[in-house]
Every structure is written in C-alpha cells, then in structure tokens.
C-alpha cells in the first residue's frame, strides 16, 4: 500500500507479519538525538509504518512534565513531526506498568504531496517511560500503547493508518528556548496547510496566556 507523493525514505508503509522474525525491525536501537517508531494499523495489522526522526529536542518544566519535539527534515518544511508531552513521571518500583495506562499526549504530523502541501495529524495518548532522570542535557525514553486516530487533515490527505498504535523510543537534546521556537514554527506550518489554527502542544507563551497547558490525563 503506498501513498501518492510520499515523504522521503525515512517514512515508508510496509506490509509484513506482526512477528518480527520474518521482518526487519528498523525501529529497534537508537544512537544520538532523534527517534524510531513503529505504527500499526489496528484494523489491518499487517500494515505498519516505520518512521525515523533525525532531530529530537525537549523542554523541561519539572520532574513530571516535559514536552518533546521530534522531526525529520528541516523544521520549515519537514516530512513528519511528533510532539509528546509527559504529564506525570512513572516511578520505578512504585508506579505499576498497566498496559492501559497513559501518562502522555501524542500528536503525529505527516506531510505529503509534491510540495508537502497535504497534511494529516494523528492524535492520542500513550505511556512514556524515561530511561534517565528528566531535566538532563539529553533525555532517552520509550513510548508504547499510544493509540492514535486521524484528528485533522487537508482534503487531499490519504489516511492509510486508520485507528493506529504507536510504539518506539527516542533521544532528545534539552533546549527549552529552541523547543518553544520550534513548536511555534510547527504550529504556524500546520495552520498554513489546514487554513485554521490547530495547536500540537503550545509553546510556553501560549500556555502562560491561557493560564496553563493541556488537561491532565489521569493515571
């Protein structure tokens, strides 16, 4: 299954068995800033999307709240981007790892077409597990059980994922100011494509004006 005008090779939809023994798993392993994710179409599990992000940055708010931005290509015109906001931090040995638990919101943005003028935004929630103490110069983390659905799109965007499940891991460099700037640019790009505002995590200036961030997902 292919999409008209697909983004670069970093984003490809492939069909393979769910057992990884018969299919390579490029989302495993990670070196440097960026991320690798696998997204499975839950209505058609043989259809998967392996996505790789070459840049990862994050903003630290406190030990429970961080905002991560991953993107592939130049931020002015990326082929894809993901924003993840952790709303509470799991504690090793204290927080039960419930397969249905969520502690983060996720927005996955795909741009397609000749000039990347078509856009689809998949939104949902998942479970983020930091592998190091948050606030450090580099954050490594895994995310799983992130249920996504197509939330907003242009008329020409083809939805090949449907109701989907995302999992993977990433590494992001801490830069609070750059992350705020990049979020503003991404939100502007989305508004230009859609023709109306659609925030995928606000920068701190917007959050402060609104009196806070997004609603908290309960444990």
How are the strands of the biggest sheet laid out side by side? 4-5-6-7-8-9-10
Instruction: Name the beta content range.
Output: 35-45%
Tally of alpha and pi helices: 2
User: How many discrete structural domains?
Assistant: 1
Rg measurement, Å: 16 Å
Could you give a quick summary of the protein structure above?
By secondary structure, the protein is mostly beta strands. The protein has one domain. The chain has two helices and ten strands.
Overall description:
This protein has one domain (11-209). Residues 1-32 and 212-219 have low confidence and may be disordered. It has a 7-stranded mixed barrel. The chain is globular, with a radius of gyration of 16 Å. It has helices at residues 176-194, 204-210; strands spanning 11-15, 34-41, 47-53, 55-60, 66-72, 80-86, 104-112, 118-130, 138-153, 164-174. By secondary structure, it is mainly β. 12% of the residues lie in helices and 41% in strands. A hairpin with a 7-residue loop joins strand 8 (118-130) and strand 9.
């Amino acid at each position: 299954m292919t999409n008209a005008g697909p983004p670069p090779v970093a984003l490809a939809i492939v069909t393979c068995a769910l057992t990884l023994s018969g299919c390579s798993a490029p989302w495993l392993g990670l070196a440097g800033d960026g991320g690798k994710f696998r997204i499975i179409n839950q209505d058609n599990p043989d259809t998967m999307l392996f996505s790789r992000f070459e840049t990862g940055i994050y903003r630290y708010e406190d030990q429970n709240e961080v905002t991560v931005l991953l993107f592939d290509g130049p931020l002015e015109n990326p082929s894809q981007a993901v924003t993840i906001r952790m709303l509470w931090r799991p504690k090793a040995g204290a927080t039960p790892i419930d397969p249905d638990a969520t502690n983060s919101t996720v927005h996955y943005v795909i741009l397609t077409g000749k000039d990347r003028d078509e856009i689809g935004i998949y939104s949902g929630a998942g479970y983020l597990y930091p592998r190091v103490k948050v606030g450090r110069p580099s954050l490594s983390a895994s995310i799983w059980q992130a249920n996504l659905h197509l939330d907003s799109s242009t008329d020409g965007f083809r939805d090949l994922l449907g109701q989907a499940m995302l999992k993977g891991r990433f590494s992001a460099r801490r830069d609070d100011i750059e992350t705020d700037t990049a979020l503003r640019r991404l939100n502007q790009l989305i508004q230009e494509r859609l023709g109306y505002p659609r925030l995928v995590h606000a920068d701190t200036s917007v959050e402060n004006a609104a009196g806070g961030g997004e609603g908290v997902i309960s444990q």
